[in-house]
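Milestone M4 deliverable, item 7.
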Amino acid sequence: MGAYIFRRLLLVIPTLIGILLVNFALIQFVPGGPVEQAIARAQGGGDVMAGFAGGGNDSAIDDLNTASDSTYIGARGLPPEFIAELEAQFGFDKPPVTRFLNMLWNYARFDFGESYFRSANVVELIKEKLPVSITLGLWSTLIAYLISIPLGIRKAVHDGSRFDTWTSGFIIAAYAIPSFLFAIMLLVLFAGGSYFQWFPLRGLTSDNFEQLSMLGKMRDYFWHIALPVLATTIGSFATLTLLTKNSFLDEIKKLYVVTARAKGLSERQVLYGHVFRNAMLIVIASFPGVFISVFIAGSVIIETIFSLDGLGRLMFEATVARDYPIVFGSLFIFSLIGLLVSIISDLMYVLVDPRIDFERREG
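Output delivered:
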């Protein structure tokens, strides 16, 4: 098993390089880069992309039509020395291949550079924001599994019953609701929108958090994360429940279950002594996908809606501002965590069923 884990860890390196290469190549063709953003700010225009969004912005159209002597939108009338200085500041005075190789060398040492517009080290920003995203991801995944597995087993045991029918209807309805829409609904209903003000509107802790006792800090923390975690969990909860039910139904119909019952074992012994281990394999296999979908896609939306200062929101704001060091640093961390979680999933496979030997399968 050790050799298999070592090979998987080695495979992480080319995978990360491939992810960074694809995204680095894409940004070469995206308009409104950091130089254009700096030009727009220097001219008091705010965001250069506002010219595209407005549709009828005549000045932006004039810049596009008449700035043929410059490769940057809005650079008309600016001295070439100023443009060259901006290019050197953002590192765009070097060829793309050189910039990419320098980025790989720095990332290998976990040096993500400095933010273009925040005047802060990217590593420090990520360290500051990462706990919020991990909080949402871990709690949502944990709650989804704690509810989905027992509920899925009960639905499989009582397949076709009234309980199974009603819970399936509720699960399908929950799955059909987008997480961002459910989050907005929770805000309107329970965070002072139009009905009740039972939960805080934004933030992960209260302003007086440091003055609270240990018990008070715990209560304040769970009070703040209740709605974001609930909104994040809704989609993965539905998927996991149906996956668990179908997995158990497939196993219950197999011959070894009939044999176990014929030996006189109780239904509980058959279910948890024989069926559970085999049925849980596919549920464990879905763990990386569930965690990553919550950690990445869910965190970006939920953190923005609930004004949580996490990594997903940081990456979203950096993407809008074309702050590439933060974008690529966050992407690197998200990808690395996802790859490591997939390795942990393989280890859980072996923990649930020791008969699985990845090394012998590869050989």
